[in-house]
Amino acid sequence: MAIAKAERLMNLALCLLGTRRPLSKRELRGSIEAYLEAGSDDAFNRMFERDKDDLRELGLVIETVENLDGDIGYLARRDSNRLPPITLDAEEAAALGLAAKVWQQARLAGAASGALQKLRAAGMPETEETYEVHSALEPRIPVHEAAFEPLMLACRDRRPVIFDYRKGNAARSEQRHVEPWTLECWRGHWYLAGWDRERGAERVFRLSRITGRVRSRAGAFTREVPDVVTVRETVESWAGETATRTALIRLRTGAGYPLRSRAVSVRELGNGWDELEIPYGHGLDAWLVEFGPDVVVEAPADLRADVVERLRAVAKD
């Protein structure tokens, strides 16, 4: 059905673009096979009006012209439906070429390459891609998660989705009903920001923790999409990157090098232990649990309680 409609819209667009004079409904019906197969005049009229509205929504400028006899005709003038000449300087062309390279590992690679070829055919200047010749590094956006494409399309089309999600400290997945806003890559991982309907709040989800299939749902968004969605800032705060205070921990000597690299100060305590002062932000408790018995939280008390609670949950599992 979708292919038949797309073919019908294409045929109608070609008829309207190819004519030098307005075409009546009768003439259009006799020129397009799908309209000839319409069971009645009413069915044809409904189909034609929907198709005309769809083409206009896609950006085709269709004129409605009434002749001296009062008959109505339609046409799409080429000069009204022609994009202005594309003018890009060498730096802008290089930026577009680089952007196309970035999507090599995604399913967008074909679309990006095709768009680049069309731009070059339209006169975009060729650039010497020195980053390919002289550099061993090549910019890429890795997209390994199966959830990426359906979520990208859902963000574009403003469609609610349902998926199973397992939090970092949870043993089982939970179903989430989300209105997806945007996707963003941070430090090699993709994140989705959106409105969680069950929790009634904005949430950010890491795509690698989505289990199973992403399923689309009918209906409109219940919340307006904000003009600015701060995915990266939210993830940074959860990871403790935007910490506003510090925590005091004891760390076994020779262990926890990632913690040592973040430490504000390190003091030797003796007996195989060091005392570290590290930035304290949301998510630090989950990180400290990963080091197991090599870490003991001294302060603050709420961080110590969170770590103990996580360790007990792990022990029960």
Topology overview:
Elements (H helix, E strand, L loop, with lengths): L1 H17 L6 H7 L1 H4 L4 H17 L5 E4 L5 E4 L14 H13 L6 H13 L8 H4 L14 H10 L3 E5 L8 E13 L2 E8 L4 E6 L3 E7 L14 H8 L6 E8 L4 H6 L2 E6 L2 E8 L3 H6 L5 E5 L1 H16 L1
Antiparallel strand pairs: 1-2, 3-4, 3-7, 4-5, 5-6, 8-10, 8-11, 9-10
Describe the structure.
The structure is a single chain. The protein has 317 residues and is an alpha+beta fold. Helices cover 38% and strands 23% of the residues. It is built from 12 helices and 11 strands. The strands form 3 sheets. It has a 5-stranded antiparallel β-sheet with strand order 6-5-4-3-7. A hairpin with a 2-residue loop joins strand 9 and strand 10 (273-280). Helix 1 (2-18) crosses helix 4 (41-57) and helix 5 (90-102) packs antiparallel against helix 6. The longest helix has 17 residues, at 2-18. The radius of gyration is 29 Å and the shape is elongated. The two termini are 50 Å apart. The model is unreliable at 129-137 (pLDDT under 50).
